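User:
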Amino acid sequence: MTSEFYCNFIKPDQSLDSFVENIGMFHNPAAEAKEVVILPDGRIDLFFMKSGSDSFSVLLVGLETAPEQRSIPPETIAYAVSFRPLAVEYILHTSIADLLNSGKSLPDNFWNMNDRDFKNLETFTEKITERITELLPETVDERKHRLFNLIYSSNGEMSVKELSEKTGWSSRQINRYFNQYFGLSLKSYCSILRFRTSLGHIAEGKLFPELNFADQTHFIKEIKKFSGVVPKELSKNKNDRFILLSVLKQK
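Assistant: Predicted structure:
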């Protein structure tokens, strides 16, 4: 294992794709804390973390709407499942509306995971895939399935009106669902996805809008809103503090 901060994320089994975006890990083996900035990415994260000789603890983190400075303690290793929103209702069976820009601790034995399941990313992926597969629903509301497919395929650029028309689900009902389960509106969620897609472009050195922003000024304003810095500074990613951008640059 490298002596420097390390992270790796992989795609889940195809059978989980509607609910899980990726499975991964990060490791800070250093004797010093790693300062990072967490960026909004439209995902819900389930972390299994330990620092030093501590046992693994479990943390569920809701959606973020703004950048957040965090410090990863020394000798910390964490395994993570990044869920798509559909998993909140159908896999986690809960609402995360009260976890907007925050998280909560779950029981240490959540899903019956134990130390043997955290040997490496391969072992964790195998075990967590098994657990989630057991929870897969027999059916999913087709309107919700179609809605999230459209949101993702359009990179968050499709209007609420158009999404409503294409799903046969009123915008009022959609927003009620989003606020009930996620704590924010559909429009706000779509803006986050558009930002995340733009991160991929910035990782490639493209500092001008590739998506449907009104102009360069609007693009810069949106990037700064969600990252805290302008595109040029974000692209430099000094000290690899923007973890999501570092992962995108690895691809």
